[in-house]
Design a protein that fits this description.
Blueprint (H helix, E strand, L loop, with lengths): L2 H12 L3 E5 L2 E4 H17 L7 E5 L4 H13 L2 E4 L6 H10 L4 E4 L9 E3 L1 H10 L14 E6 L9 E5 H15 L8 E4 L11 H6 L3 E4 L5 H10 L4 E4 L1 H9 L13 E4 L6 H11 L3 E7 L2 E8 L12 E2 L3 E6 L12 E7 L5 E2 L3 H7 L5 E9 L5 E6 L4 E3 L2 E3 L1 H8 L5 E11 L3 E10 L5 H8 L11 E5 L12 H13 L11
Parallel strand pairs: 1-10, 3-4, 3-5, 4-7, 5-6, 9-10, 9-11, 11-12, 12-13, 24-25
Antiparallel strand pairs: 1-2, 7-8, 8-18, 13-14, 14-15, 16-17, 17-19, 19-20, 21-22, 23-24
Length: 498
């Protein structure tokens, strides 16, 4: 089934009910379907051909969503760009994906053949006569290109097919948000270019109302969750921590909320506990990657006594732990997490060798180190490339970060290995805090909670930590900055010293 069929079916079933809102503007299901038809036909009339890559660079809003699904209907391949990335980042992706066109709310430097701004879109859709846009697309043909977060190196374009898109929708409706019903409200506070956008279509096809916030604002989100009687939302853990720190949280009442989904990075147990106290038993964690979008494992609301686990595999996904030679690890031993299922990418765009290496044997090799307990719950220990070897012992940064995040004054943490003549590497930590802290006192607090070789030798405090456009902390950049500061005999701190 084509994505356009899902939209047109929803238009027939739910008609004039509100489908999507941003600010004071609302489109019904019928209006949204018609707008995507008009733009899809207009794009083809401008000379674009099915299979061409078209980038979209717009903030959260209705126009961006119309563009996304116009591309889906017209057989064009979407390349989503994040407004928080730099012009150099955008130019790299436009060239790497060989985009023919860019749809954007800002000026462009002419990297592509066809630049379409907001005025262009308005004219094109106004001049286009009504008529369905429905270009067939093979199940294995590219549907969209999604770039990796660049946490371990330059971003790569992941080719996602209709097969993968259908699998993601199925996984959501089967496991993550199985009880969506007509009239429900999904509030999008995180960028729809990333995880939050994957919630749009499952809600739309079930008759729910998608409400977009132009950008994340903790106070505004709290207000909208209450005003709209929201049933679901998605946040990265850093955003959730900011919501819980907002002064208005003390008076929040969200009785309609059934799912507060989170992902993209680990959650501190203290944040999860505070969130459950405020919102009830509604937290649901989803673990995925660009190469297997969003849906590898799931920690359900009634499983949050196991915070620290990434949950169990989605119903239609297989997960194993393997050695370096791809033999399955026996028992609860640790190794690389590998994944198989319809959700997987087709490969990396124009990178056949990396594709073959990552998808060898039909399994996605995630690069994550983990273990599976006797009940089938996955525990992620770290990225293979981030493991610190100190005195011959493996130190998994996430394990140390989880301990630091239990401290009431620490909001974010990144643990890194710094070269050392005696130990090979030593552990250091960089944190952001809710209030000024005494770094020595924090290190003393952590001592009984960590084995000697895992304890940070230094603690640096920052106002915030560098993140990818998906909200993941970039440890490699943190490490580079600490090393550069050490070389300059400076310490990158805020609120005090090391």
């Amino acid at each position: 089934m084509e994505i356009g069929d899902l939209l047109s079916r929803a238009a027939v079933r739910f008609g004039d009910a509100p489908a999507v809102t941003c600010g004071d503007r609302t489109l019904s299901f019928r209006e949204f379907d018609a707008a995507t038809d008009r733009l899809g036909n207009a794009l083809l009339r401008r000379g674009l051909s099915p299979g061409d890559r078209v980038a979209v660079l717009m903030p959260n809003g209705i126009e961006g969503l119309i563009a996304y699904y116009a591309l889906a209907k017209s057989g064009l391949v979407r390349v989503s760009l994040n407004v928080r990335d730099t012009p150099a980042d955008h130019a790299f992706r436009l060239r790497d994906a060989q985009c023919r066109a860019l749809i954007s709310d800002r000026t462009s430097d002419g990297v592509v053949e066809l630049n379409l701004g907001m005025d262009d879109l308005a004219r094109m859709t106004a001049d286009e006569p009504p008529g369905r846009c429905d270009v067939p697309r093979d199940a294995e043909a590219p549907y969209r290109l999604g770039y990796t977060g660049g946490t371990t190196g330059p971003p790569k374009a992941v080719t996602l097919s209709m097969r993968s898109e259908h699998a993601e929708i199925t996984n959501y409706l089967l496991d993550l948000v199985p009880d969506i019903r007509a009239g429900d409200v999904m509030v999008h506070a995180a960028p729809v270019t990333h995880a939050s956008g994957s919630f749009f279509l499952p809600h739309l096809i079930r008759g729910a109302h998608n409400v977009m916030l132009p950008s994340f604002d903790a106070g505004l989100l709290i207000e909208e969750l209450q005003r709209r009687e929201a049933t679901a939302t998605f946040l990265v853990p850093t955003m959730l921590a900011m919501v819980l720190d907002d002064p208005s949280i003390e008076q929040v009442r969200t009785p309609a909320l059934r799912r507060l989904c989170y992902g993209a990075s680990p959650i501190a147990p203290s944040v999860a506990a505070r969130a459950e106290k405020v919102f009830g038993q509604v937290l649901a964690q989803t673990y995925g990657q660009s190469e297997a979008p969003m849906t590898i494992t799931l920690l359900r609301p009634d499983e949050h006594d196991r915070v620290g686990s990434a949950g169990r595999p989605y119903s239609m996904v297989e997960v194993r732990i393997v050695e370096d030679d791809d033999r399955e690890v026996p028992g609860e031993g640790s190794g690389e997490v590998v994944v198989r299922g319809q959700i997987l990418m087709s490969g990396y765009w124009n990178r056949p060798e990396e594709t073959a290496r990552t998808l060898r044997g039909g399994w996605l090799h995630t690069g994550d180190v983990g273990r599976i307990d006797e009940d089938g719950f996955l525990y992620l220990l770290d990225r293979r490339n981030d493991v610190i070897i100190s005195g011959g012992f493996n130190v998994y940064p996430r394990e140390v970060e989880d301990v630091l995040l239990e401290h009431p004054d620490i909001r974010e943490a990144a643990v890194i290995g710094i070269p050392d003549e005696q130990w090979g590497e030593v552990v250091q930590a960089v944190v952001s805090t809710r209030r000024p802290v005494d770094t020595a006192a924090v290190l003393d607090w952590s001592r009984p909670r960590l084995a000697g070789y895992k304890r940070p030798r230094a603690l640096h405090v920052r106002d915030s930590l560098p993140k990818s456009s998906a909200g993941k902390i970039l440890r490699r950049i943190v490490r580079d900055e600490v090393l550069a500061a050490r070389a300059d005999h400076e310490t990158p701190t805020a609120h005090g010293g090391t």
